[in-house]
Design brief:
heterodimer; A: about 375 residues; Cytidine Deaminase, domain 2; 8-stranded mixed β-sheet; two-stranded antiparallel ribbon; 10 strands; B: about 290 residues; alpha/beta; 2 domains; about 40% helix; metallopeptidase activity (chain A); Eukaryotic translation initiation factor 3 subunit H (chain A); initiation factor (chain A)
């Protein structure tokens, strides 16, 4: 009960006013959840209604699937409460110093401004829009890895799927990087042996955290007003206008047309092609390594043979030279890119499977109703 | 889609005779996006104890037909006492510049405040925002949160016009403009998520199941009505009957003419393909771990 009580209590938002720092005693029920060192692990993510709409709006308006922004909030007793968010400007590819600096300035200014109106101003993670469920990308992993060091609890990433939302099911997933992946990332080593050591496949890069949606009481009551139909004042209004509501029930999940299947198939194809190219590169590098190794081995073997002959003839053996300096063996190639591509392919496949399974149900439902 | 209780206001259009094309049109309709609405509510929740109402800037897009789309909003620091009202203009400018970097198309179109009383201060703030919006009239949105007793939650939109022989900034008439709640169809499911009882996002199939349940309960209701009409308990409404006929007479001819089997085959094929791709990806990622050892 105390836990539920603690969860329902409002989070202390603003720091005490600097003029009169009066610290109240922490009530006993809350003492357990006071967590200065971030020791209570985050078990779920709670998105505020405002954040949900903000992310959806930004994702829909931004060109392609590049929309991303920061999430603001606090964590309390294992629940990461995301109470606000703001979009980050879209930077066109080039990561030069100037654009990075201006982005940082934008962030700092935004946070300061939000603090002035008593909003939460601590960054807890970021959000990323994606299409067809494929969100694995180098940029996402990099950003998250940076956050993991800087933010309390390492930060989370909330992934929003535009396509699924357009189909009538708003999709939000929260992730964080796994320990194994972070370890490999810190060493910047994604060669095959390192992957084996860390047991890394694309499915173990990120771990999912359950997402909860929360609408605060005020928002809830307002939404209720919006969904309640209002009766028209006119006595002889036609049924279409007699009772109107701001938020009429929607039946878009029942839409029979499987839109986006073709696009999705194309995406799968593209991902396959990209993966093949990447595999080709890897195989080329592997062959090169093997060739260099063979040459180095042959050289040492020959030197040994020569030395044996010289010893037999009573001559002094030639010095054993450092082979690695003679032959440059390329380092093991990084398999991160190919792993991410596989992850993307899997995500496309998953969303395709999702569409078709729902499609099957809808088709049989429509068939059954047409048989009546 | 109206917002809140219907009002009996008559919307007067003040279009000067032979209006010049250079003169921007008076707004005929204000539409409000959920993000703007929810931001206002959030701002109201986070107000200081001493604040009676909160104000902020509305951003959006105007189109040629006189419609004004409010797309987003941000809070602005302001202070009201019995003697004076102060709006932090610098804050307002900074926020606008920040916002402008992400959404370059959205411009300042007016301001919001909570509560529905329009007083002298409202007129003064309105006067300030009229300077900010340039030649276009500034919109004022008054949002009643409905937390005070006896007040209905709702949103009203106004434009202002000067009043008196010698117009003064503290005097103006707020002329009501129709206000609607509007969002893109693709954003609909997000609102469904907020209004649904479950507190976590559902899977595709679960959402489908929910929808089917709703349809089923609606069918039961209709069936109940039809039975009671047939048994003579209720007098049938011809309009309802006509709507029912239109709905249930929907053409499913294509499905019956072999279309069903074709679609079924396609869907199954795609489903098989998707699973195949997924399992191949999984196998491939595991093989990468095995081959090198």
């Amino acid at each position: 009960m105390a836990e539920a009580l603690a969860a329902s209590l409002p989070v202390q938002q603003a720091a005490p006013a600097p003029a009169a720092p009066t610290y109240e005693a922490i009530p006993a029920s809350m003492a357990r959840v006071v967590d200065i060192e971030a020791e209570i692990p985050v078990e779920s993510v709670q998105l505020d209604g405002l954040v949900v709409t903000k992310i959806i709006k930004h994702s829909r308006e931004a060109p392609s699937s590049s929309a991303h922004g920061l999430l603001l909030g606090l964590d309390l007793d294992g629940v990461l409460e995301v109470s606000n968010s703001f979009p980050l400007p879209h930077h066109a590819g080039d990561e030069d110093d100037k654009s990075t600096k201006s982005a940082a300035r934008y962030q700092a200014q935004m946070l300061r401004s939000l603090k002035e109106v008593q909003s939460d101003d601590s960054v807890v993670g970021f959000y990323q829009a994606s299409t067809m469920g494929a969100f694995f990308s180098q940029a996402l992993i990099d950003t998250q890895a940076i956050h993991q060091d800087k933010l309390r609890h390492g930060g989370i990433v909330v992934v929003h799927d535009i396509t699924q939302t357009a189909r009538g099911n708003a999709s939000f997933h929260a992730f964080r990087l796994t320990k194994a992946f972070l370890d490999a990332f810190k060493k910047n080593n994604f060669s095959a042996p390192s992957l084996i050591d860390h047991r890394l496949t694309f499915s173990t890069i990120l771990e999912e955290i359950p997402v909860k949606i929360r609408t605060n009481v005020l928002l809830n009551s307002f939404l209720n007003t919006l969904t309640t139909p209002t009766q028209s004042h006119l006595p002889d209004a036609s049924p279409a206008v007699a009772s109107t509501s701001s938020l009429p029930p929607s039946f878009s999940p029942l839409n029979l047309g499987a839109t986006g299947v073709i696009r999705n198939l194309e995406q799968v194809n593209d991902a396959l092609d990209a993966y093949r190219t990447e595999e080709g590169n890897l195989a080329y590098l592997q062959r090169q390594i093997a060739r260099e190794k063979a040459r180095a081995d042959a050289y040492t073997a020959k030197r040994k043979e020569d030395n044996a002959a010289r010893v037999a003839q009573g001559l002094a053996p030639l010095p054993e030279e450092d082979v690695s300096r003679l032959f440059r063996i390329p380092p093991e190639p990084s398999r991160l890119e190919s792993m991410l591509l596989l992850g993307q392919m899997d995500a496309y496949g998953k969303s395709l499977a999702g569409i078709t399974s729902a499609g099957l149900v809808k088709m049989y439902a429509a068939k059954a109703s047409s048989d009546i | 889609m109206p917002l809140g209780q219907p009002s009996s206001a008559v919307y007067i259009q003040n279009v000067p005779a032979g209006s010049h094309s250079s003169q921007p049109r008076t707004p005929t309709l204000v539409t409000l996006h959920p993000v703007a609405l929810f931001s206002i509510l959030d701002h109201y929740l986070r107000r200081m104890e001493t604040q009676e109402r909160v104000i902020g800037t509305l951003l959006g897009v105007r189109n040629d037909s006189g419609e004004v789309e409010v797309r987003s909003s941000y809070a602005v620091v302001h202070k009201e006492t019995a003697e004076l009202v102060a709006v932090d203009m610098e804050y307002h400018r900074t926020m606008y510049e920040l916002h402008h970097r992400v959404h370059p198309r959205e411009v300042i179109i007016g301001w919001y405040s909570t509560g529905s009383n329009l007083d002298t201060y409202s007129a003064l703030i309105q006067n300030f925002y009229t300077q900010e919006t340039g030649q276009h009239p500034a919109i004022h949105i008054a949002l009643n949160t409905g937390v005070e007793e006896g007040q209905q939650p709702g949103v009203k939109a106004y434009v202002s016009s000067p009043v008196g022989v010698h117009p003064k900034p503290e005097n103006c008439v707020f002329v009501p403009v129709p206000c609607e709640f509007r969002f893109h169809d693709a954003e609909r499911s997000g609102l469904d998520l907020l209004t649904s009882e479950s507190s976590s996002p559902l899977s595709d199939l679960e959402t489908l199941a929910e929808s089917l349940k709703t349809v089923s309960s609606m069918l039961d209701r209709v069936l109940g009505y039809v039975r009671s009409v047939l048994s003579g308990e209720v007098k049938g409404d011809p309009a309802v009957g006509r709507y029912l006929m239109d709905t249930f007479g929907a053409d499913t001819g294509e499905l019956e003419k072999g279309g069903f089997r074709d679609s079924l085959q396609d869907t199954l094929m795609v489903s098989y393909l998707a699973e195949l791709v997924r399992s191949q990806a999984e196998v491939s990622s595991r093989l990468a771990l095995v081959t090198a050892s």
